[in-house]
Amino acid sequence: MIQPQPFLIPAVQAHQTDRLDEARQLYRKALAVDPAQYDGLQLLGLVEKRFARTGEAVALMRRSLRLAPGFTAVRQNLCRTLQGIGDHAGSLVLLRQLAAELPDDAETLYQLGGTLLRQERRQEAAGPLRRAAMLRPDHLETRIALSEALLLDPASQGAEFEESLRNARASVMLGPGNPVAHLQIALVQEEMAHATESLAACRRALRVQPTMTDARHIAGINRLRLGDFVGGMADFEARKNNVWFQADGSPIPIWDGRPLPDDTVALAAEGGWGDMIHFVRFVPQVARICGEVVVVCPPRLQRLLSTVPNPGNIRFNPERMPAIRARSMFLSLPHLLGSTADAVPNRPYLSADPERVRLWTDRLAGLGGLRVGLCWSNGDATRDADPKRSVPFEFVRPLAAIPGVTLVDLHKQDNAAKRLADADEALLHRLGPDFDAGPDAFLDTAAVMKTLDLVIAIDSSVLHVAGALGVPSWLPAPYRMDWRWMNDAEKSIWYPSLRIYRQDRQWDWSGSMARIARDLARAAEAKAAGLAPDLLPAG
Prior knowledge:
Helices cover 49% and strands 9% of the residues. By secondary structure, the chain is α/β, with parallel strands linked by helices.
């Protein structure tokens, strides 16, 4: 009987010396003699993987695994191959088996944690990654992965962020020339609202790798927080969204901000709806230096956004697209137009539909006292609320006890965080099921706001609608505020009618909401006395 060894042994030798064509032929001859040669199957799979024939590689490794289910090397190689083709769910099954059998194998634990991390199962990922870091404390990639898992877990707070920072710093100690390690420190410090330290880490990453767009983007956010508007907006251009904009295959060039009086510029809305409402203010400036401006935006926002002042050459979502000379995104406009912090267009730039204002004025005519619109939670039917921005209702409830205050709920009832117990429902005035129920977003919201004295809203689209209308607004802001609100600011360069109440400590709403309650009581007293309530920021 012919044995496979005369072919298998030289096949392995050829494989080890990178003579891959020869190795493939010899492995196939060995398997022709003995198709159940499980080692030959997985080794041929590794060769096929080197030739980028991953489908064949996976099939060969699976055949090997069926013949030898306990073969550790096959499972490890198959895991890596599945991860390479993005089949993280398939690799996860094998990795769990391996981790159970090899609880002290740091590489397996690292692979398991990394796979869970790629599936955004961050809480699960932290456990195996902690164990891997303990077993192999000098492994840089494990330290970075553990720091990332702890940073991105929505449930993480102070202790988890401190642990994340320790692991990021350990990764820099292990690889001082690794730009990803420096970037990880920047990301953790940015999440902890340490803008100066985060910016320094970004600059260290950029010294190692000047083309690192993520580091440039985070540097821009930190520069904006620290008041460097012009430099921050320039660095902000490196944000990830620009990767899509540059690589979408369109032959239309990116606009560089120069006047094009005889041509059409297309502006693409980007980010969340709040970003679009915030940055549409710059569209009239583009219209003043270009022949025509075409704005592409979500259809539900079109009617609200199209109330922006229009010199006659702005079109929203035209049915027939004209010839386009250049294109840009909304968030690039401050940079392209050369805006400065003291010269952003911040007068009210959107308007409410007069007929709807009359309708809601009549419907709310019976509401007395200081009329205050409330938005304490974000999210919708398809997206959970962000716990770091949303205010638990327990901190909102005391506002209803203030004499002379009527609270109007500005939420649509489209997620669980906005539905309350009956006792709390009784504290608020609901606007009914027809509130913003049509195909257009925020038209009723804008009209209702024009009948109110004040809007108290978290960082959300609702807040941006109020700011764009010039309605007095108060923002309960997390300690780590969005870059656009700067650091330690009570006022906003974007909305003169906005007053900011920042948390005194991360994740603690008690202090900021107590200040809101105090100022709200004073405003209600003033209105009851026939005086103008103090609703705007100081100065």
